Amino acid sequence: MNQLISRFVKSKQSFHFAQLTYLHFCLFGGSGKDEEVYKLAAAVELWILSLDMLDDFEDNDNDQELWMKENRGVALNSATLLYTLPHLVINSLQSPHKHKISEYFHHYSFRAMIGQHQDLAETVTTEEECLAIMRRKSGALTALAATVGTILANGDCDDSIHQYATELGVAAQIDNDFNGLFQENKEDGKTEKPSLTMLYIKNSDCEACQKLREYAKSRHDFTTFFGSKQAYMDVLWETGVVHYLQVMKHLALHKAKKVIGEMSIESDTKEILYQHLFDEMPNL
């Protein structure tokens, strides 16, 4: 089991959520030399990985991931174990704030699972409903990483941190959804599963959107249906969906920046947040 989980962890190309935990710990009163923050950052990444795995099993997509190639029962048990491990790590902390940190893990787990249920139910019909689900799912991941790092540092967390971290999660999810359109192993671009992209395409009368609706119903990969990846990209550009996603992403980032700008913290702290949370944010 240890070897299997180690393979899953090593397959991750980055540890952005651990970095988010560490950043907020250091900015809001903690010392970067405190070993406790590394344990907490690891717990956050294990929690994120468990939810990623469960999400893939429930959506039955992303078949290139290592856990999707394993025996389903074994892989599912591994995901359950990964979900449990962070709580054991938190209980092992020496921090007097560990019980509050544990409460936040349960709170955000609940939000993410409710959001996942709404996503799987496929009842979304409006942009507002779609954004609400994104805040519950992806927003919960970034919000947890930021808030528990802050709580470990000083025992408390301003609601503003939850607010801007949640909007960052929305922006990141928009990027992820967009990039998923170009991965033939991802089901999001082949189905009519609710997303900002599919809502836009569904509600537009343009000829290019009609082609994309036909593609979604065909269940073919985009190379087979359009002839080439470039032809598929040309159709996407023609629909205007790329520009729409860019606008939605930047609206989320603008909300996050606005919240940080109104916080009662040192200007140097704000600048560090701007640098790490926005300047290093990938573009569509």
Can you give a write-up of this model?
With 284 residues, the protein is mainly alpha-helical. It has a single domain (2-278), classed as Farnesyl Diphosphate Synthase (Orthogonal Bundle). The protein is 74% helix and 0% strand. Helix 8 (159-180) runs antiparallel to helix 13. It is globular and about 60 Å long. The two termini are 37 Å apart.
Task: Please tag this protein with its features.
284 residues, mainly alpha, Farnesyl Diphosphate Synthase
> How many separate domains?
1
- Overall mean confidence score, pLDDT: 90
Q: Which stretches are poorly predicted, pLDDT < 50 over at least 5 residues? A: none
Give me the number of helical elements. 14
The CATH superfamily name is Farnesyl Diphosphate Synthase
Radius of gyration: 20 Å
Which sequence of SSEs, written as H and E, runs from N to C? HHHHHHHHHHHHHH
Total number of strands: 0
Largest sheet: none
CATH topology: Farnesyl Diphosphate Synthase
Distance between the terminal alpha carbons, to the nearest Å? 37 Å
> Given this structure, which CATH class is correct?
Mainly Alpha
Structural class: mainly alpha
CATH architecture: Orthogonal Bundle
Q: Describe the global form.
A: globular
> Strand portion, in percent?
under 5%
Q: Please estimate the helix content.
A: over 70%
Structure, briefly:
With 284 residues, the chain is mostly helical.
Please specify the SSE layout and strand pairing:
Blueprint: H1 2-10, H2 16-27, H3 35-59, H4 72-91, H5 98-121, H6 127-136, H7 138-154, H8 159-180, H9 196-203, H10 207-218, H11 222-226, H12 229-239, H13 241-261, H14 267-279
